[in-house]
Amino acid sequence: xxxxxxxxxxxxNHLGCDIDEKVKSVGGFGIEEVVSGVVRCIRTIxxxxxxxxxxxxxxxxxxxxxxxxxxxVKDVGYPGDVGYQSxxxxxxxxxxxxxxxxIEKLPKDTAAVSDEPLNKAALIHQEARRKLxxxxxxxxxxxxxxxxxxxxxxxxxxxxxxxxxxxxxMSKPYSSVESPSKVSPGLRTYYENYSRRITKMVGYxxxxxxxxxxxxxxxxRDQILPKNTEEEGKSEAHTLEPLVTEDVQLNPLDVPLSGxxxxxxxxxxxxxxDIKESEREVNLxxxxxxxxxGVTTEEQIRLxxxxxxxxxxxxxxxxxxxxxxxxxxxxxxxxxLAKLTDDLIKEERLKEETVTELKMKxxxxxxxxxxxxxxxxxxxxxxNSEEKMVRLQQQWQAHKKPLEEQLSQLTLEAxxxxxxxxxxxxxxxxLRDKMKAMVQDASRKETAxxxxxxxxEKMNKDINRSVYTKRIxxxxxxxxxxxxxxxxxxxxVAAVHEGCGELVDIVRDTGTVQREIADLREQxxxxxxxxxxxxxxxxxxxxxQVKKENASLKQQLL
Length: 558
Description:
The protein is mainly α. It has helices at about 1-15, 30-45, 60-75, 85-90, 90-105, 110, 120-135, 145-150, 155-160, 185-195, 200, 205-225, 230-240, 240-245, 265-290, 295-365, 370-460, 465-530, 530-555.
């Protein structure tokens, strides 16, 4: 049973029970461990179970909760007899049967318990095994198709389908020259000698998306912007309204790692307006001073670029700060929500406990008019238990005394027969030695007889027959004496055989008595394992506590 108890304790610890390491068997469980283990097993089997894992302090509530748990065990399908007494006053045998039944009813993934220690390496292997099994059950998407899944992905699907490393086409801010023929000489010199290439400005990975975006902006600008240059400054914001109203929703996972973020249509249009204003100013400057146009235009363009760059960097910093503030605010709100959720759960649990206690008190108060009858029932049950205990002790003493006398008598007889057996065995060994000596003597005489027969055949036939007759008579007398000894040996062997048969019968009777004694001892151990005296003591204590609670309730009512 030790191995069974170890498996039961290990399984209960995996279900969340806090069983001390010093407890090595089910018999060492206290009432709290019993109730907690049974309720956790029932919760694992039936998720709708709402039974508490601990008993309340009030005795009436304890009895009701224990009865509810016992009824839940019956509902699961336990075939044996179980009641509140099985939990409040448990015995080791019934308790082991209940736990074995409940653990057999556990779901397979919960009942599988490993004997290995749950160290860090084992937990890592277990988590890796679980994730591998989960990934093997999902559909696989080829690498060349993952960008399609990425376009319609959420955070969960990105993780599931392995498209986290992919990204959509992202563009960077870039404005191209509208028409090379309309560019001023100074600006042309800047573009030819000082301007960086587009590959260095946006990078190879953003090149295609940037060019496509710039081309789309140019096409849309040509369709929307008015042809009249005099009204261009007034109506530019109005004509770009379709671009402003465009809403681009970005997934948080779509942000590139380099820190760049794609410009919205409004920012692109605003950037385009700034470039046109700069080009207009450059054109005006070239008309005023043609000889110094190259140097002035380059200086203005450089200053304008630096101003735009600083403004964009400031805007980027502001957007980054706002993003961080929003992220921090969201995190604070999530933390506050989690805290409020925990507080709400605690309040609901406290409310449930309060409602349960209130119902128990209401039921207890409803039982007060019949408190005398209830006390009499408990006293009668206690008296019956005491009488049963006394009656069992008397029966045990009545069976014990004659059995002990019979055991002592049989032990004495067995010892005497053992001594007789040893004596008979010694005589048998002595007779065997004599028989061996007689056999050797007989063989020797047969040899001598053969020699004498040979001599007789060689001797003269005229010898007197009386001599041979006398010798024959002498030999016959000796053989008769030897036959008498053989008869004595046979009688001794028969007596030994009879004694051995009696010894076998005695040993058989002794084994039967020992089996009966072992059965009686098992019955005694079974009665002791039921802890009748301890349960009676606990029952008396509970009865006294019930009396005290009834008295306090009466005082409160008065």
